[in-house]
Amino acid sequence: MTPIIPPTRFSSPSQLGSFLSRPARHPSKPYLGFCQICHIQGHTTKYCPSFKLIPINTSHNTSSPVSNSPWQPTSHLATTSTTTPPWLLDSGASHHVTSDLYNLSLHAPYQGSDDIMIGDGTTLPIKHTGSTSFPISNTHFSLTNVLCVPNITKNLISISKFCISNNASIEFLPYTFLVKDLHTEAILLTGKAKDGVYEWPTFPSLIVFSSVKTTSFAWHHRLGHPALPILQHVISKHCLDLSSSSLYKLSCDACHCNKSHKLSFSISTITSTRPLQIIFSDVWTSSIMSYDDFKYYVIFVDHFTKYIWLYPLKQKSHVKDIFIRFKAITEKHFNQNIQTLYSDNGGEYVALTNLLALHGISCRTTPPPHP
């Protein structure tokens, strides 16, 4: 189904009459440039249908020469303002339509074959589809399936699509319109009519500049943990504000852990042929206390299967009780006996000496600087 879009509107009947009464001045050769207002090829800004005519108030401007014409054409976009063209509420539009891709927060190229049909029967190509939203105070209005048509001159909001996607209703009054919640009928937004057209209200963006400077450590995190020379170069080249001029006191634990350089360990000569033949164990201290007040944890690693068992501990002295439970579970599961236990000979493992000797388990220790 081809979406239907009404023709371009004019601000007043006099503007329409002035446009229709203009003499048709066609140059000898067709104009190949693009209009700065509607971006359509074939005419200049002076002859653009989107021109707005503003009356000249001669009583307040006596220094400038008075024109014979009571109207002076001006362009909407030939100003220093950064405001975008408004969105117009249209009951005759079957889809939301915009000419500017920057009006869409999410967009994708249009892959279909449909075109936009305007009031005079001509069609305009669709380049992208996407979505956007209008966050206003505590209310959030969304426009989905918005069609981006570069050759359209106005941004149009389909009333039907808007009411369905936002679960709302729109009530038109002589000079205003109300957007209401469909179920509670609470007024969510109040807009005004301008030059006979109902425009979606625009709210100025709040631009806040913070006077708080960023620390070098924060820039280090934002830029992806670069090395100190790279960080100094980026900050110097882009003149980034720092709360302190010193960059030599940068200390990042994440970089120390992930960028450490050390020679690799030699290939181990230890071999195993069955589960539980060799078990490695170590006790680690957690940096924070767990919810159940566990401060330590012990791990057991089987050399053959590479299985890892982890048990939380409240005290290191609980390693003996944990090992008894671990031994009973694993030996029953694999139907094998633990043969050798490797540890760092810490005090918690010294307490296992009699237990290991009782069950015929040999106790081996690893060198201190090795894992």
Verbal overview:
The protein is α+β, with helices and mostly antiparallel strands and 371 residues long. It folds into three domains: 1-21 and 28-55 and 70-204, no CATH class; 216-258, no CATH class; 278-365, Ribonuclease H-like superfamily/Ribonuclease H (Nucleotidyltransferase, domain 5, 2-Layer Sandwich), CATH 3.30.420.10. The chain is built from eight helices and 19 strands. It has helices at residues 13-20, 159-166, 216-222, 228-237, 253-258, 319-334, 347-350, 353-358; strands at residues 52-55, 71-74, 87-90, 97-98, 106-109, 115-117, 123-125, 128-136, 139-148, 155-158, 168-172, 176-181, 187-194, 197-198, 278-285, 296-302, 308-313, 340-343, 362-365. The strands form six sheets. The protein has a five-stranded mixed beta sheet with strand order 17-16-15-18-19. A four-stranded mixed beta sheet has the order 4-9-8-5, covered by helices on one side. The protein is elongated. 16% of the residues are buried. Residues 8-27, 53-82 and 205-211 have low confidence and may be disordered.
Task: Give the low-confidence spans.
Answer: 8-27, 53-82, 205-211
Given the helix and strand composition, which structural class is it? alpha+beta
Q: Compute the number of structural domains.
A: 3
Number of helices, counting only DSSP H or I runs of 4 residues or more: 8
Order of strands across the widest beta sheet? 17-16-15-18-19
